[in-house]
């Protein structure tokens, strides 16, 4: 794909690209935004380096994609629940997003996109991995694809104890979503179960559901579907929760990793 206004360098053949020639601290023209959106659809996750965005600029970039999503329970900064805090340090007992997941998939309308801006990174480590769920679906054998076609799964969030003394924004959500969803923009099919939130497949016996979910959770761990991003201060990642999952590696204890995530509302998976 040729772009007129931005440069796009793939990280892997299947997922992830670094975008340059863009200043996210300034308002984006419609033409530049359209190219970023196209590159995002093509590569699923985009990375931008050296973007010292203010919170207002971060929110403005998020609002180009749609209405902002409020996390059910995570702490936020500047009294604005749309500015989710991502913070791990020597006193942390857990790391946000350390297992494979699609953000808040337990919402009835899970977020379509997340934009993470890291301000402080450890001296090394603290990478994030993303997995391509189109590819995860496409590489299943036809009999398994047929089995999944009519199945839906229960997604449950339980944030109790996750965020210390921080009072949740709303009740823990839960929802039923198709196991395979169709991306509303690309029309491609993507596997939509994740070990962070998906608890069981509806209509199956417990052992059947556990067995199929274990198979799918193991399948998405195939590194052929993955990219891995090494953060630096003022790196930004934009990912599509409709066709990717991600996990944040916590290999840098006791160092600090800090940033802000802005998340964009999505629609009901079909
Ligand atoms: C998340 O949004 O799940 C956290 C990702 C990260 O910290 O890299």
UniProtKB/TrEMBL annotation:
Gene3D superfamilies: Clavaminate synthase-like (3.60.130.10). It comes from the Bacteria. GO terms for molecular function: metal ion binding; taurine dioxygenase activity. One of its GO terms (cellular component) is cytoplasm. One of its GO terms (biological process) is sulfur compound metabolic process. Keywords: Dioxygenase, Iron, Metal-binding, Oxidoreductase. The keyword Manganese does not apply. InterPro entries: AtsK-like, TauD-like_sf, TauD/TfdA-like. Pfam families: TauD. Residues 8-263 form the TauD/TfdA-like domain. PANTHER family: ALPHA-KETOGLUTARATE-DEPENDENT SULFONATE DIOXYGENASE. Belongs to the TfdA dioxygenase family. This is TauD/TfdA family dioxygenase.
């Amino acid at each position: 794909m040729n772009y007129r206004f931005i440069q796009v360098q793939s990280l892997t053949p299947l997922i992830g690209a670094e975008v340059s020639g863009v200043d996210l601290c300034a308002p984006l023209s419609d033409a530049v935004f359209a190219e970023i959106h196209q590159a995002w659809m093509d590569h699923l996750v985009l990375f931008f380096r050296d973007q010292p965005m203010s919170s207002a600029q971060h929110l403005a970039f998020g609002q180009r994609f749609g209405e902002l999503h409020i996390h059910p329970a995570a702490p936020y900064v500047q009294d604005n629940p749309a500015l989710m805090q991502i913070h791990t340090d020597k006193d942390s007992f857990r790391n946000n997003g350390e297992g494979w997941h699609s953000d808040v998939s337990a919402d009835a309308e899970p977020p379509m996109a997340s934009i993470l801006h890291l301000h402080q990174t450890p001296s090394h480590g603290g990478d994030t991995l993303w997995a391509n769920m189109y590819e995860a679906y496409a590489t299943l054998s036809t009999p398994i694809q047929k089995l999944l076609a009519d199945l839906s799964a229960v997604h449950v969030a339980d944030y109790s104890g996750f965020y210390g003394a921080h009072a949740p924004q709303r009740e823990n959500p839960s929802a039923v979503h198709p196991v395979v969803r169709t991306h509303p923009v690309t029309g491609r099919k993507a596997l939509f179960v994740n070990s962070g939130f998906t608890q069981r497949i509806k209509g199956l016996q417990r052992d059947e559901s556990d067995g199929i979910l274990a198979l799918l959770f193991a399948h998405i761990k195939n590194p052929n579907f993955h990219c891995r991003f090494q953060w630096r201060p003022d790196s930004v990642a934009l990912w599509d929760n409709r066709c990717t999952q991600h996990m944040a590696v916590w290999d840098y204890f006791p160092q600090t990793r800090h940033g802000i995530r802005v998340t964009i509302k999505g629609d009901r998976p079909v």
